[in-house]
Amino acid sequence: MKLQNIAARSAVVSGLVFGAVVPAFAAVGTEVSTALTEAKTDVTTIGGLVLVVIIAAAAFKYLRRAL
After folding, report:
1. Which of helix, strand or coil describes residue 67?
2. Which of 19, 38, 55 is nearest to 11 (CA)?
3. C-alpha span between 12 and 53 (Å, rounded)
4. What would the pLDDT profile of 21-43 be if each residue is shown by its tens digit?
5. In sequence order, what are the residues at sequence separation of 6 or more whose Cβ sits closer than 8 angstroms to the Cβ of residue 48?
6. Is the pTM of the predicted complex or chain greater than 0.85?
């Protein structure tokens, strides 16, 4: 019975704590949005190039082992 009371109280407290957390959204300037878009493009390009290099290295290693 005591364990049920503790569980109920902790559920109520956690509900109050997490229920009080409200996300805040602020207006973002167009410069910031543009910079983030450009950064996303750069990261995508670099990530793609890294992936190509990893695949090329694995293919080269596979071909050396096969011959």
Report:
1. coil
2. 19
3. 53
4. 666 677 778 898 899 999 999 99
5. none
6. no
